[in-house]
Amino acid sequence: MNEDQLEQDTLQAVESTAQQTFDQVTLIRALMEKIRERVQREAPGIYSKDLIEVIFRHPYTKIQFLVDSGIAKRQTASTYLKTLASLELLRPSKHGREIYYINDALFAELVK
Questions:
Q1: How does the average pLDDT of the chain come out, rounded?
Q2: 66 and 77 in contact (C-beta within 8 Å)?
Q3: Most buried of the four, 17, 49, 105, 106, by CB within 10 Å?
Q4: Is the distance from CB of 87 to CB of 74 less than 8 angstroms?
Q5: CA-to-CA distance for 42 and 87, rounded, in angstroms?
Q6: With helix as H, strand as E and coil as C, how does the chain read?
Q7: pLDDT for 25-68, tens place per residue?
């Protein structure tokens, strides 16, 4: 393989990876918007832009993430996450003493 061909193949690989990443980010942003609208409609008392951002920062969240973000104190954060779980937007999973709330929709997008 000559140097020009190698350079062209490398550029195509970079372009392909960039497009895949762009498409994935676009899908995640659309999912985030869909969830935002649903929470705003079905649980307006807990809705905040910051809350939605926290549950999309990782494919899972926990009470401490909301506390650390300044969204709510521990008990209120627990209530928020339980509400999101009751809407089936998050799935609670207990590990030891900690309850993790899994964002299955985000996880599914990340593993595609």
A1: 95
A2: yes
A3: 106
A4: no
A5: 8
A6: CCHHHHHHHHHHHHHHHHHHHHHHHHHHHHHHHHHHHHHHHHCCCCCCHHHHHHHCCCCEECHHHHHHCCCCCHHHHHHHHHHHHHCCCCEEEEECCEEEEECHHHHHHHCC
A7: 999 999 999 999 999 999 999 999 999 999 999 999 999 999 99
The tens digit of pLDDT for each residue in 66-112 reads 999 999 999 999 999 999 999 999 999 999 999 999 999 999 999 98
Spatial strand order in the sheet of 60-61? 60-61, 98-102, 91-95
